[in-house]
Specification:
208 residues; alpha/beta; Rossmann fold; six-stranded parallel sheet; binds flavin mononucleotide
C-alpha cells in the first residue's frame, strides 16, 4: 500500500553555509515547520557552525531541532546525495561564494555541493541565497554559470515597499519570497498590490 500511494509529504533540503546571514536558514526552517506537510532535510557546513554561533547564538544542535532530518556535511552517503531519493528541491540560505563556486564547477566534495548538484542534474529547484558584497567578475561569472544550469540566484536583498521596521521583518520578506519559488506561500510579510499588504501598510501608517 505504501508503495502504491507513494510519497504524500513534500520534501525540501535546506543547507546553511558560512556566509553571513545564518538567520535566513533558521527562519526558513521555522516557517517550513509552521507550514506543516513538508519534510525538511538539513545540512549545516562547518563554517556555518561558526556564523550560527556568532550571529544567532545558536549551536548546530539547536538548528537541527528545527528540522526533521539532519545530515553531517561530510556524509556523502546521506539519502539526499542520490537522485533516486525524491525531493522537491533545495534552498541554500545563506549561500557562500565558496559553496556557489563548488556547485558551479561540479567539484562536489561535500554533502551541500553534492545535494545541490543532484538538484541540477535531476532538474529540480535549487535556490541559492548568495550573500557577498561587493562581487568581482569571477563571482559574477560563476553565478551566471549557475543561472544557466538552472539554479535560482536569490541574493536576500530586502524589499523596502513594505516599510520594514525590524531585522525580522526584512528577513521574513526575503524568506517568504524564497518559499514562493517552491509554491509554498507563507504570507508572513506584506505583498505589493495584495489586499493584506495594503492593510498592513495602512495599519503602520496609522501608527499601529
Ligand atoms: C563571520 C564570517 C562571515 C562571513 N561572511 C561571508 C559572506 O557573507 N559570504 C561569503 O561568501 N563568505 C563569507 N565568509 C567566509 C566563508 O565562511 C568561508 O568562505 C567558508 O570557507 C565557506 O565555507 P562553506 O561554503 O562550506 O560554508 C564569512 C566568514 C565568517 C567567519
Amino acid at each position: 500500500m505504501k508503495k502504491l500511494l507513494g510519497r504524500l509529504m513534500r520534501r525540501l533540503v535546506v543547507a546553511i553555509t558560512g556566509a553571513s546571514g545564518a538567520i535566513f536558514g533558521v527562519r526558513l526552517l521555522r516557517l517550513l515547520r509552521a507550514q506543516g506537510g513538508i519534510e525538511t532535510h538539513l545540512v549545516v557546513s562547518k563554517a556555518a557552525a561558526l556564523t550560527l554561533s556568532a550571529e544567532c547564538g545558536l549551536s548546530p544542535a539547536d538548528v537541527a531541532a528545527l528540522a526533521d532530518h539532519t545530515h553531517a556535511s561530510g556524509n556523502i552517503g546521506a539519502p539526499i546525495s542520490s537522485g533516486s531519493f525524491r525531493t522537491d528541491g533545495m534552498i541554500v540560505a545563506p549561500c557562500s561564494i565558496r559553496t556557489a563556486s563548488a556547485i558551479a564547477t561540479g567539484v562536489t566534495d561535500g554533502l551541500v555541493s553534492r545535494a545541490a548538484d543532484v538538484m541540477l542534474k535531476e532538474r529540480r529547484l535549487l535556490l541559492l541565497a548568495i550573500r557577498e558584497t561587493p562581487l568581482h567578475a569571477g563571482h559574477l561569472e560563476r553565478l551566471a554559470t549557475l543561472a544557466r544550469l538552472g539554479a535560482i540566484i536569490f541574493p536576500p536583498v530586502p524589499g523596502f515597499y513594505g516599510r520594514p521596521e525590524t531585522l525580522e521583518e526584512m528577513v521574513d520578506h526575503s524568506c517568504m519570497r524564497m518559499l514562493d519559488q517552491f509554491g509554498i506561500h507563507t504570507d508572513v510579510a506584506p505583498r505589493w498590490g495584495e489586499a493584506d499588504g495594503i492593510v498592513a501598510f495602512g495599519a503602520r501608517e496609522a501608527g499601529a
